[in-house]
Write a structure and sequence with these properties.
It contains nine helices and seven strands; from the N terminus they run H-H-H-H-E-E-H-H-H-E-E-H-E-E-H-E. The protein folds into three domains: 1-43; 45-104, 5' to 3' exonuclease, C-terminal subdomain (DNA polymerase, domain 1); 115-203, no CATH class. It is an alpha+beta fold and 204 residues long.
Amino acid sequence: MRSIAKTCAFASIYGAAAPKIAENLGISVDEAQGYLDAIYKQFPSLAKWKQGVEQFAERYGYVNVLGGTRRHLRKNLLSDNSYERSKALRQASNAMIQSAGANQIKMVMSLLWDSPLFENYDMRWMFCVHDEICFSVHKDHATQAIQEAHRLMLTPFLEVIPAASSIGFGRTFGALVELGEVFDAALVEKTLDALFDRKEPLAA
């Protein structure tokens, strides 16, 4: 059910029709259309918002993204290929959501690099994955490093939506223990003692 809901929610924003959703999910077109109808019924302003985004993109050739960037689409919007034009319109609303999320994680990464985290702790930056930041830190420094990184992840980005961050760590990035959105030093220490040898690094 979660997979269906996620696919239909994103598809409705990106402009996918029932046949395409049905093909991706392996369900009937009628069932896919029923999910789309339920989404638009629950969120009646969604279609109006998408239309406004597309009209802005057609007029100016770009869309403004939260965080101060733009997604330029003029070339494809002026294409003689109808598929490229419709794809560009879908990308307009897509950019308003996903690119804003990318700007938020970029902001957090900048705050991390400007902080003394990597100087104060035995800690190494690894990579980001979509909306996650991943680093390796010595177990002895893990509690403090996780607390400070978590605090930076909660830096406000949107005025109307509070930032949230979930904490997870483990021996490898593929096997993390999820501790939720609230930092609890005692719980972190207890989990660390249960999972790791003090000499081993920690993926967080």
